[in-house]
Design goal:
By secondary structure, this protein is mostly helical. The protein is built from 6 helices and 2 strands. A two-stranded antiparallel ribbon has the order 1-2.
């Protein structure tokens, strides 16, 4: 039996507190909060959940929390708003540079990608002109 919450199939062999983190927008701390609200033990395996517990989790997550597509859409709209305003953070997003104050002289490779440097510009003696 596959447990499907917010459009995501949870892994049957994992503990429920870990399996919930497969849903975009749910981390470890939020997963623990959800389980305490649903009165479930964190050590319970997904395959051992009853259908009643499954439905309780599904209603808690889908009705009360912003997860998966809705969360991604809201984040994208927030970034679009910053770009449209022309704010500093929006400009950094447009230029694909780090937004949160990191240095860019070095160590910005994940955002900027691999860069090729020019070198000295001097031709090697073996090269033909």
């Amino acid at each position: 039996m596959v447990v499907r919450i917010a459009g995501i199939n949870l892994n049957n062999d994992k503990r429920i507190d870990i399996a919930l983190t497969a849903i975009y927008g749910i981390g470890r701390s939020l997963s623990d909060q959800i389980l305490s609200q649903a009165n479930l033990k964190a050590s319970t395996r997904v395959k051992d959940l009853t259908s009643e517990e499954e439905n309780k989790l599904r209603t808690l997550i889908e009705k009360e929390l912003l997860v998966e597509g809705d969360l991604r859409r809201e984040i994208a709209m927030n970034i679009k708003r910053l770009k449209d305003l022309g704010s500093y953070r929006g400009q950094r997003h447009i230029k694909k540079l780090p937004v949160r104050g990191q240095r860019t002289r070095t160590n910005a490779r994940t955002k900027r990608g691999k860069r090729v440097t020019m070198g000295s510009g001097r031709k090697k003696s073996a090269d033909k002109t």
